[in-house]
Amino acid sequence: MEFKHIKPSKTQFINELKDLIKTEVNGEYDSIKEDYFEWDINNWRTSKESKISPEFWLCGYKWELKINKNYSKLHNSLNYFDVTLKNKDNNDKLKYNCVVAIRDNNSYLNYIAKEMIIKYKDKYCSFDKDNYKNAFKSLLKNDVISVTVYIRTYINSAKEKKDIFLNTLNHMLDENISNENISNYELIGKDYYEWKIENWNNVKFNEEAEYSPKFNICGYNWKLKLHPNGNDNSNDYVSFYLKNLDFLNNNTNHIFVKCILFISNYENYKFYHEKKFTANFHQDNNTDGIKDFIERENLYNDNNTFKQPIIENNKVIIGAYLSVYKYNKVGSIIKELKDSIIKKNTTNNDCIEENYYEWSIDNWKLIKSSKKVIYSPEFEIGGYKWKIHLYPNGNYPENRDYISLYLHNENVANNSFAHILLDYSLYMRNYKDYSCFNSIQSENSCNYNDEEQEHGKERFIKLTDLYIKNKITNIPIIEDNKIVIGTYIRIYRYDKENLIKDIKSLLYNNNRNVNDIIDENHCEWKIDNWDNIKNKNMVKSPAFFIGNNKWDITIYPNGYDKEAKDYVSFNLTNLTIKENDNAKDNNNLYTSFAYYIRNKNNYYYYYSGYNYNLGIFNKKKNNYYLKEFIEKEELCKINQIDHQSLVEDNKVVIGVYICIYKRDNFDKFINNMKKLIDDSNLRDNEVVDERFFEEELDDWEETSEEYEFENDGNIGNYLWRCILQPYSYSKNGISLSLRCAEFDKNVSDKMNNDVYIKFVLYIRNYKNFNYIKTEDSGKFYLYNKSNKELGIKEFINRSDLYLKNNHLLEDNKLVYGAYIRVYKNKPKEKIINKDFKLQFQSDDKTNGGGIVYHYDENGDLDVKLYGYKVDPLKNNIEVVDYKVNKLNTDNPHTEIANQTKININDIEDDDVSSSSNDDYESESESDDGYGSEIKNGDTVIALSDYKGKFSYELDFNKNEQLVITDWKFKPDYAMGYKLSNTKRAGLIPKNKISKKGEYTNTQSNNQSLAISTSSVQSTTSQPISSPQSSIPLPIPSSFAPPPPSPQPIPQTNLQSLQQSIQPYSSQPYSSQTYSPQPYSPQPYSSQPYSPQPYSSQPYSPQPYSPQPYIQPTPLQPSSIQPVPPQPSTIRSLSLPPSSVQSTPPQSTSSQSYNTLYPALSPQSSPQSQPYQQSYSLTPQQQSTPQTYRQYSLPTSPTYSQQLSPPPQPYHSSFSMPSPQPSPQLSPQQYQPSYSMPSLQPSPQLPPQPYNPTYPVPPLQPLSPQVSSSQPYSYPYAQGDSSNQNQATSPSAPPPQYY
């Protein structure tokens, strides 16, 4: 024993303790580890009990100090007290020496020290109380002492080095990791595994993972997983994981693991790197570890402590030391569920309450056969009431093999505007083994509100899996007919950040690419006195800026219009565009936006609404209305749960969130849509609005098996609905249609309106506008309450979505939609490069004139008026020309073009008449092979059964009687109907019919009528028009109607109107006066005539299909099947008839694909007829007053009208006659007489056929008396309100697709 004085520093104190170790160690050793530990003891003088220090880690081992103050075991005496150092590792081979010192805890000046000796496998030393009594008094001034132990360990073999290394790992495992309540688990066992890599160069360049051999610890099979070049963008690190092989096919067993992963020098365990982690292993988490385990460069650098790298000689050891635990309390389940939620939650939401609930079912057999929902008892968490909804046999028949499980909130159903933000888990477990359970959790923090009152999973677990025993523990979830169902709920504070996040999600979940957003923000408008504005018509917010654009919000507290009088309406206006007088119509700003109204104090209490489709702001449309945003009575309604309301204390907050997108993709897309909707051939085509709306389908494979899809858009102040039906009519066909949902409303001020549109239907790639399949309407269509929907039955074959060159379906997603152009009024077709002429002459043939209407290549109208006066005395004609250029434009101008005199001797009398006779002869009808005996209106017999390939063809049976209305409709087809169904007309193959009573058996008689299959397959598609229906059909161009040609005008009498269908004899044109019939004909209408243009050219859409999209092979007529009748339970679509038959340019492509076409039951277009020509009528036509096209000319017998080019007039003075009203004449009262304005009589010429495609403009002719004319109209024409005053229409045809 030595008594030391005045040691001024700790370093000197420790060095002196080291010098007190004198004992020599026997044997060899190659390394030494030494260190010290200090332990403070309070109340030393008054304490009589033994003192035990905390366990401490020193020199790679675990130790413990013990002081027995009252008795010395070493001396077996009360006069001594012992200090004992115990090695907690019980390592018998460990060699070490040590010194213990007792000192004042406030200084290192005075201490008592002694070397310890081995006794009973531990190190001991004793202090004599009597000898050191005075010394102790001087040390215990503060009644606190410090005990210091200095330990030196000796390592003399490689095995000891490894033992020390493993000991170190073992002790690290025993240390509790923060927040781990180890009492929730029961230790199964612990062990380690090391993987020696003899050639590191073989793995160090691998980008993929390297796996160790399989090893077993605690009955489980494992592998080490190493990423030498990092995982998940950790390229500068080595990533290291532990993988369990038993949980790949085991969905009920769970274990808790504490693990240390290490990498060590191959020859010396002193040089190593380690990291520890804890994890719950189960089927959904069979691999865990550390992504940034060690920097790759540190593998080759000298260790900071031992100056030696970990990888030497291209060798290294990697391994794992792990402890495995089973769950023995419900807290272990909740801990796993909580950790899983926190791990995935990156928003750092503020948790305000969390808890769990368990529902024990003691008799599963009692409920397992139930087809209904089973409710748990009601429980409360976070101040809200909840129930678990259990469906033992699934919530739908298709889920009958599964358990469906949901967490239902009982409050939000009666709390319309409350929002609860939370994460949850649901689980089913063995009633006595906490390690055996199956669970699910919310993928993202979910929002409970009145529209989302429950969340869960419809296929929670298979029924059979409840009884399958775990392969490791041999335990099923249901045991002894018992089971426990539980939930863990974690409720978050709903703050402004969460509100804005939810509002943004409304827009982000829409089919917009978030990467295209160039600016976004929100603005709130606080209203401090709601009573002050609630009775006003409208109130504007202060202007605000988002995305360098100036905006404002307009509130209509009592609705925007009468239709929305019970609602608060909102309007968002872009003031930057509105106030810019130089803004262009095509300068678009693409946005999406959402409104919300909330309680002034609580962000969780709000209501939101948004414009689902893209908001396109431009000069023509700089604002958007949301008319029915929220009902007025809801604003001040107080809920019964937390007594909140939107307007509270007369205050409320209104907000808007706006996203602004890049223009490039949308501009390109819209420009291509506009090219498809080409209305350059139309006039009076003022556009009210045009835009598109669309919807993204996120899970096509699953949802398309079960549902049809609809999305709405407001365009032109009408509500439109695009409908996609994956399996509506055929196994592989996908149908797409457009419906005007405005006419489905119970109340709408537009219910009786007619709306004219052109549109494009499309399916495209969800993130690339270049991959798209389109079909355009071609012509414009009329929508009204009788004609609400138009569509394409087989828009695309389902298999074509998966073609690699289409790229329409990607990531199991696609987008479908419609682009619509809405017209202000009914457009009219432009007349191009056409002349219309009208001439007159006085009774004495001394003066006359005419009008020439000329439509140029742009459809602009030039009018030339000319007059002449004959002066026989001077033998000349005086002529004046007067021109009006571009009369139908905004800038017409007039001019007197010519005023001359012509000598009569220079005029040839016969030039006009001869040319007219030639024209007449060229228009004569040719024989069609049936001879002159077969006339229109003949009754024929079907030679065999016939099933049309297309719905515009007529189906009939053998020997069925048919009536032919037009033998020359097509070279190989006639137009007619069945006697059994006079309302359904269609095309009839001529080789399938024969005159009644005559049968043709020779092939030669019918050869000229046969249709060439090859010619059908090589043609493009063309529309056929019908007044009865306008349902689009794919029609080969060989079936398309010819250009308009002269047709007989029907002439009826009382007897013919009373008879059934019968053939009428054809009467040649005659100049004799027609004798009146014994009945009064229908008077002619004096209204100006507005004929319907007729489409005489094939329709050929040009869908936007940029590379690399390749248009599918066009459908061949042989592959198109007739449409079977649809049962009434299937929603059919009623399509409007064409309001006009446009004349689009001839197609130059042979690959048109399923384009839109009109008319299931095509009829020949109304044509003007030569007078006194008999005509066959259907019974329905006979029962309906007919309207005929004719000219009503002056009553004076000397007046004549000529439609051929005028002759050279005489030189004379000229005066324009004033127009006079025209008398109304019937067909029987008038027989035209034609004469030339020459000095010799002119031969009679037939009237020029009226061409309805090019109507004469409503200008006053120069004739003193000119009557109005009206066209022949089919009595069963549907959908065109313009013809309702001419014929009585029956009920609309049943809705159907083609």
Automatic annotation (TrEMBL):
Residues 897-934, 997-1298 are annotated as: Disordered. Residues 1011-1032, 1050-1099, 1132-1203, 1225-1242, 1262-1276 have a biased composition (Low complexity). It comes from the Eukaryota. Keywords: SH3 domain. Residues 935-998 form the SH3 domain. Residues 1033-1049, 1100-1115, 1243-1261 have a biased composition (Pro residues). Residues 190-322, 354-489, 520-658, 690-820 form the MATH domain. Residues 999-1010, 1279-1290 have a biased composition (Polar residues). The keyword Endoplasmic reticulum does not apply. Residues 906-930 have a biased composition (Acidic residues). Pfam families: MATH_2. InterPro entries: MATH/TRAF_dom, SH3-like_dom_sf, SH3_domain, TRAF-like. This is MATH domain-containing protein.
